[in-house]
Design brief:
Strand order of the largest sheet: 3-4-5-6-7
Distance between the termini: 98 Å
CATH architecture of one domain: 3-Layer(aba) Sandwich
Protein name: RAP domain-containing protein
Organism: Durusdinium trenchii
Pfam families: RAP, RESC6
Strand content: 5-15%
């Protein structure tokens, strides 16, 4: 009798005991994989435990992503790695939303270069995710969107599904989620005004909840998108400089770079930044140095020229020592900043060397470095011909084509049409002489193009918009030497003129100052 009861109890316990054993096995597998320091060990382990659960497979993919360094990325071509990806793809239907997000994130982190197997897994993830409408939390939604954009999944149904899911959950999104989603849709090349407006509005509502990381990520993605959202940017700038001591040097470099590009970095802000930077300048790596130097150049910070010189010296030292990798973007920022701050003479050797290093590489597809380098090519022609730097034909053609394409694109923008209309209606007099400008759009001035140009007065106008990657200081300094009267119309200042009458007065004052000057001046309209 007792034997029968004992057996019955044992049988009732069996499901629990087996479930407990499976859970322990899974934890053991996960811990074992996480401790490994060689990708091949991970592959060996998973080939010996092919019956492991989905959590172990996700952990193995994440560990491989963490361990990929140099030659250790050879595992990408290993059949055992392909087996891991295949197993994950086959088990996705059984995963909940959180596990789908984790696998998406691990796949995105695994190798900057795509492989057919990784692409297949990403596409399968997209298919399964699109069947889970309403089940993705805000965090999972942001994670999946970013991962798929990084892995190059660009099919319209997936993007549209995620867009609709974001709009459904907009009131639940936190600042970090908004930043990630903006970046994901930027990577996809999707500029959906409704979506962006809702995300920016949500960020504005939650601005008091921003962490330092949220703030840095926000200004960075907004600058990359070229969004002119004054209310949010003003709040973020004020919040940043009220809590400057809470940011790391890396965060300060990223934030300064982004704010300078957005044209919201003010003189008093620079004073605080330079003061904060002072005792920690020796801690900066090459990429951070070039970002700080570029920010100073963007605002033409002549009052902080000594700091700029020290930054340039440290960047040059990093290149000479060869212990820090200097990316193409970082090198271009460095040479542009030297030219913009008129420091090429002091750092001629390093300016020439950095350009030589750039020209040894392939031309990028990104418009921003090409537009920056176009400024440099013009400066080499107009101001530094004695350096005898030869720009390779592929680089020169790429820069010129990029500048022409961007200028042509902006020629008929809403803002340019608005300013042009005001110029067409502008009639005034200076020193008793009546004048009327006959503006030509997208006109050539020396090696440059300007947004608008009046041939009789030689008044050349550029609209300094937040989506243009460089300020106009260097360009206008060089053209002024050739006799042009340069007007730099800052986007934020123009937007402060609310009515047509205010806009007319704004332009009239700027043109009058130019015409009354004894020699063609460089005028910052304010």
């Amino acid at each position: 009798m007792r034997a029968g009861v004992g057996l019955a109890r044992l049988r009732r316990c069996e499901p629990w005991r087996f479930g407990r054993r499976a859970y322990v096995d899974s934890k053991d597998h996960i811990v074992s994989v996480q401790k490994m320091t060689n990708p091949m060990d991970v592959l060996d382990y998973m080939s010996q435990h092919s019956d492991a659960d989905i959590r172990t497979y996700e952990t193995s993919l994440r560990s491989l992503a963490r361990l990929q360094r140099g030659n250790q990325a050879d595992f990408l071509q290993d059949d055992r790695f392909h087996a891991i990806l295949s197993t994950l793809a086959n088990r996705l239907e059984d995963c909940d939303a959180t596990m789908l997000a984790k696998i998406s994130d691990a796949a995105a982190r695994c190798s900057r270069t795509s492989t057919p197997e990784l692409s297949d897994l990403a596409q399968r993830l997209a298919e399964v995710v699109c069947q889970r409408g309403g089940t993705l939390s805000p965090r999972n939604l942001a994670t999946v969107a970013m991962a798929l954009s990084m892995r190059g999944v660009r099919d319209a149904p997936t993007i549209e599904f995620l867009r609709k899911e974001v709009l459904k959950r907009i009131d639940d999104l936190e600042p970090a989620h908004c930043n990630i989603l903006l970046e994901a849709f930027r990577r996809w090349g999707v500029f959906d005004r409704e979506l962006i407006d809702f995300l920016v509005e949500r960020m504005s509502d939650e601005v008091d909840r921003f962490t330092t990381r949220d703030l840095v990520d926000a200004v960075a993605v907004i600058s990359r998108l070229g969004l002119a959202r004054r209310f949010l940017l003003s709040r973020l700038r004020a919040l940043a400089f009220e809590n400057l001591e809470q940011f790391s040097m890396k965060q300060l470099a990223t934030m300064s770079y982004a704010m300078a590009r957005l044209r919201i970095l003010e003189a008093k802000d620079l004073d605080q930044l330079v003061k904060t930077l002072g005792p920690k300048i020796t801690e900066l790596v090459a990429s951070q140095i070039s970002e700080f130097l570029f920010a100073l150049a963007m605002v033409n910070a002549r009052n902080h020229i000594e700091t700029a010189q020290e930054l340039a010296s440290r960047y040059a030292e990093a290149g000479r020592m060869g212990f820090q990798n200097r990316s193409t973007n970082s090198l271009i920022d460095f040479v542009w900043a030297l030219a913009a701050l008129d420091l090429v003479g002091q750092f001629q050797e390093h300016f020439t060397g950095a350009l030589g290093e750039v020209f040894e590489r392939n031309t990028p597809q990104n418009r921003e470095p090409l537009l920056k380098l176009f400024d440099i090519c013009c400066a080499l022609e107009m101001d530094y011909a004695d350096l005898d730097i030869k720009v390779p034909a592929p680089w020169k053609a790429a820069c010129e084509d990029c500048d022409k394409m961007e200028m042509d694109r902006l020629e008929n923008s809403k803002l340019h049409n608005e300013v042009m209309m005001r110029f067409n209606q502008l009639r005034a007099s200076t020193k008793g002489m009546k004048w009327e400008l006959q503006m030509q759009r997208n006109a050539g001035c020396g090696p440059y193009r300007v947004d608008m140009f009046d041939e009789d007065t030689k008044i050349a106008v550029d609209l300094d918009i937040v989506s243009w990657p460089t300020s106009r200081h260097m360009k206008h300094r060089l053209l002024q030497r050739d006799g042009y009267r340069m007007l730099n119309l800052q986007y934020w200042h123009w937007r402060q003129a609310r009515t047509e009458e205010d806009q007319n007065l704004f332009l009239e004052a700027a043109v009058t100052r130019a015409l009354e000057a004894n020699s063609p001046p460089s005028i910052e309209s304010s």
